[in-house]
């Protein structure tokens, strides 16, 4: 975050987002009709400094209902680093992705000149492999060895 005033502005915006997401998560938790649809998003980062990646991923984790799970190397040469994000309430993946785009642009406003279409961002439903799955058939990220 360059500039003290931008940092303060971002912190205030993030605090508001944390409270809004927190109240939303509590409301969904106490509503028996709410579906729990966790998804994993493969978000192509536009921020590129360690400092910005730290703040973006930490902001995601601080916001209730989302979790930054890790970074992956670019899929293509000179492509973006991929940030894995789990969203607990992923019934509308494009809306969740649009929220990530908005957060990244609040962190680094110059990114609004390089927009991301949420429809182009890869995601998939989270699959619970359960406790009885043979460890040879688990993805490497889920093995405990």
How many separate helices? 3
Shape: globular
Residue share in β-strands: 15-25%
- Secondary-structure-based class equals alpha+beta
Low-confidence segments, ≥5 residues, pLDDT <50?
A: none
Question: What series of H and E elements makes up the topology?
Answer: HEHEEHE
CATH class: Alpha Beta
List keywords for this structure.
4-stranded antiparallel β-sheet; 37% helix; 3 helices; 145 residues
In a nutshell, what does this entry contain?
The chain has 145 residues and is an alpha+beta fold. It contains three helices and four strands. 37% of the residues lie in helices and 16% in strands.
Task: Describe the protein.
It is a single chain. With 145 residues, the protein is an alpha+beta fold. The chain has a single domain, classed as Alpha-Beta Plaits (2-Layer Sandwich). It is 37% helix and 16% strand. It is built from three helices and four strands; from the N terminus they run H-E-H-E-E-H-E. The chain has helices at 4-29, 50-62, 93-107, and strands at 39-44, 66-72, 82-87, 122-125. It has a four-stranded antiparallel sheet with strand order 2-3-1-4. Helix 2 crosses helix 3 (93-107). The radius of gyration is 16 Å and the shape is globular.
